[in-house]
Amino acid sequence: MSTAFKSYFFGLDKMGRELFATQVGSSVGYLTLVANGHRMPGSILCVDIERASGGAVRRRDLRPDDWLRRWPELAVVAGSGRRKKPAKKAA
Hints:
Structural class: mainly alpha
Helix content: 40-55%
């Protein structure tokens, strides 16, 4: 799980965590589970967290195993300007 989210979320004070949870349409309890690696956030929550954190936490960090399949538009090969193709799912 994303250490960036864990650091960001637990870096907020109690009121800040409550406000953040409201902004992303979740609860402090659920976000605590996500931050501690006990739950995997859904695609929409990942986008909401990225936006609410001002990009400090990226959706690709929240879903490191499948972000490329979920958001292929984010996969630009560094320095080339070309897009990276998502890996095909094994049968």
